[in-house]
Amino acid sequence: MNLKTLIAAAVVGLASISTAASAADKKVVVGYQTDALPSSVGIANGDFAKATGYEIDFRKFNSGAEIFAAIASGDVQIGYVGSSPFAAAASRGLEVKAFYLSSISGIDEALVVRNGSGINTLADLKGKKLAASPVSTDHYQLLALIKSLGLTEKDVQVFAIPQPEIVASYNRGDIDGGFVWDPALTELKKGGKVLVTSKDVADKGAPTFSAWVATSKFAASDPQFLKAFASVINKYYASFAADKAAWGPDSDNTKALAKLLGGTADQQAAALKNLTLLTPDVQASAAWLGGGEQSGAAKILKDTATFLKGQGKVSEVLPSYSAFVTPDALVSASN
Fold first, then answer.
1. In which band, very low, low, confident or very high, does the pLDDT at 21 lie, cut at 50, 70 and 90?
2. How confident is the model over 63-72, as a mean pLDDT?
3. Of 328, 325, 266, 264, residue with least CA distance to 97
4. CB environment 4-38: b (16+ within 10 A), e (fewer)
5. What is the rounded distance in angstroms from the CA atom of residue 99 to the CA atom of residue 213?
């Protein structure tokens, strides 16, 4: 082999190494929860990885609070969270941005009271034992509900425990009710009834949302990933809105959700019907992510933080939460 051939081979080899290294650098860890979302099918079948070109390590967590702890430690760059732990994390200085609103207050989260608990109306909550996942949107709404009734945590015992423990405590009769989301919501309904939904509490002045957030550093360095990620969610949400048969109990989609999240395809199909979803253009509008200081999401974060401070859950409320929301990925993904 002559010198020119050796040099050419070396250049090709270096290029191959560079390409492999570049691909290897495209790695991201994404935290998700057990909520039934149409887009979770994309986790199950690899669509997110295909669309973004990244190697994605999807990790399941029990709550948004756990995801924010993982983000703070540097282990997770993208996460699916609720607005209450989001408000708490932002108030403590964690630099993240919501780039997609998965859902807003609806009937997919609710306070379920146990048969035999003696609770038939909201007036019966005094003296009872209730539970919600720590620092979750459910915890926030449960506390807000109690306050709206003129009660305090001295009047109603509120236990902040993970959802699996809520289900176990409920089934043993240790607690009278729990404010939960699926799959715990489905489990609690088997032995009780829904007393109030997340939408009901939102109508009383404590709205919430769930969102995909990215660290501010990742959002700045990898905007194309967020655009591609959002486009996958858009695809599944559009399918869910347009083709109900494709999301029924016998569909491949709900079977994939059951395999990924637990429960049965029937339960996943039922849970999906409870969602309140926003279209990409509505999300990107000033009403939600695109209004800066006046955006709906930023307002909810600030109002939630203000409530949490009053409850002693956070020590500071920031002057503005507009830096924690962005419509950029949605505007690009929907165009």
1. very low
2. 95
3. 325
4. eeeeeeeeeeeeeeeeeeeeeeeebbbbbbbbbbb
5. 6
